[in-house]
Amino acid sequence: MSVTFSEIIKLNFSLVFSLLALSTSSVSDEPAIAQYTQGIANSSLIPNSLKVPSGQQLLLKTSAKGIQIYVCKAKSVEYPVEYEWTLKAPDAVLLNEQGQDMGKHYAGPTWEAKDGSKVVAKMKSKADAPQEGAIPWLLLDARSHEGNGIFRQVNWIQRINTVGGTPVQGCNESSQNREIRVNYTADYLFYGGKTAATAILFES
């Protein structure tokens, strides 16, 4: 059966629209991690109480996926009959902007890169997370370092874009010393006094 010139034109237009639709679909299917890191580049989303001191440069952006580990303990010596979930440690994988494993996050709190460098930090300030049931956003001050890699340069850390990580139930005497693990995700931004040109993108 012969095909007319008009039908050929229609077929070409159909092919063009199909390719455009496929291209749009590919963009929307990018990993959530990449979408996160585009969002966190907008510093106006970060509360003023969590801003780093002037002169600090953004060295690295990572996303964390893991758990927050809690232990049921008495609130205090004065109130031994009241119990609460007390954070024991995080346990998470750190992913770079391409979604590649570049390190881990654990007790300390400590961030460790695959290049062997580590940074241990202490909370400076916090703010409630916009999302209900999410752990707070934090500003942390670096206290100690190990190794000569990227984390050696870190002075400040921001934890933002948190999802989950908060126990949904309370604890009581019957749960004393019991551990629970709560899934969470977050973004961590690392700042140092050197220029952003020193930032390293880790690849697995």
What's the gist of this structure?
The chain is built from 2 helices and 8 strands. The chain has 204 residues and is of the alpha+beta class. The chain has an 8-stranded antiparallel β-barrel with strand order 1-2-3-4-5-6-7-8.
Q: Determine the strand fraction and express it as a percent band.
A: 35-45%
The biggest sheet, with number of strands, parallel, antiparallel or mixed sense and barrel status, is: 8 strands, antiparallel, barrel
In whole angstroms, the N-to-C terminal distance is 55 Å
Number of strands: 8
Element pattern in H and E: HHEEEEEEEE
Mean pLDDT: 79
Rg from C-alpha positions? 23 Å
> Rough shape?
globular
Q: Give the strand order, joined by hyphens, for the main sheet.
A: 1-2-3-4-5-6-7-8
Low-confidence stretches: 1-41, 195-204
- In the residues, how many domains can be counted? 2
Contiguous helical run count: 2
The helix/strand class is alpha+beta
Helical content class: 10-25%
